[in-house]
# Entry
Amino acid sequence: MKKEDVPQDMSALGKITKEVCYATDSSGKYVAELSRGWDVKITALDTAWEDIEGRIAAAKQKVLNNEASPLLFFMEHGLMDIKLLAQYTGFWKWQIKRHLHPEVFKRLPDKKLRRYAEVFNVNVAQLKNMNPNAV
# Structure
């Protein structure tokens, strides 16, 4: 791609940051050129975020339906999976899977709940009540 052909489509982050692209200058040498965005990439990222928002909404509904514990909501909101949450909390993956069951989660001691709350950057009450405004 030639330097003058580097896309400059405004993205959501276009006013905050720019992306480095490599293009050829008039002599055919590769040079770094800043781009504000590219329509194809913007569309792909928007689609990915819509998917994430859908997963968060589905997790919230499962918690409200008592099909999962609030951990599921906070995991989706924080873009975490069980393996990552295990690394952050020090719990075994099988323990976290167990804690995703509402009846097990309700019996967790405050010490374990505090570990989860710290990872999700909320307090224990917000964790228990799945307070989405606190996140």
